[in-house]
Design brief:
single chain; about 270 residues; alpha/beta; 8-stranded parallel beta sheet; two-stranded antiparallel ribbon; 10 helices; 10 strands; about 15% strand; globular
Length: about 270
Amino acid sequence: MSILNETYELEGGVLIPKIALGTWQISTPQAVHPTEFALKNGYIHIDTAHGYANAKGIREGIKASRVKREDIFITSKVRGESKTYNEAMANIHDQLEDLDTDYLDLMLIHCPTPWRFFNHKPTRPHFYKENIEVWRAMSEAKEQGLIRALGVSNFNVDDLEHLIEATGVKPAVNQIRFSIGHTQPEIVAFCQENGILVEAYSSLGTGSLLKNEDIQKIADKYNKTVAQVAYRYPVQKGMVILPKSVHDKYILENADIDFEIEAEDMAFLDSLDL
């Protein structure tokens, strides 16, 4: 079985494929072909967000692929700036309409704060109460059958703790930046201890890993590309990955990671501080 068909099980029996086609920074016109091509070549998971503003292109790509909706897993996200019940509910319905679907498989809170505050460290303001309102909207949409599973993105440990304490519910996933040399161990450990699946984005370090000589040596050993090693690394740690490309060649290569990095090589990659 191809890794494209391998899944993790979320609470409630929802199966989430290990690899999603990432669509960040892909416009509506650009999104049509890669979505169609990926689905025709075995991908069954598409990751988007209200903030990406490309859902209509993904919709057209899905239609062109002729793959049945029930055979596709679609993840989307409430905008980081949407911090009220009404704004969150509007985002959900916008995505349902733009994707032309009756339901979303997974909906995330895209960011614990509006994006303009996200990199204000260590003084980033908290939006604990606001996130509870967003979660309430998402939970109601789930009860209505509009969403199958709920999660978050970019949440730190304190964000997760406050949400869980206030709602009594653990998010199914936390989608975070994770790559070789940038592993966010505190967040990952908390998620793993609490049964929250980690989804890794920017696995190439926004491209910075592609010219790394240490990773290149590992790639050469397995007759793989640096990108394939960089994507395999989080998968071996039990995470979902979101490789993004608009090029057919790389869409195929990014999913060609049915190999095993040996323990000593994983340890070496773990030791890199990039």
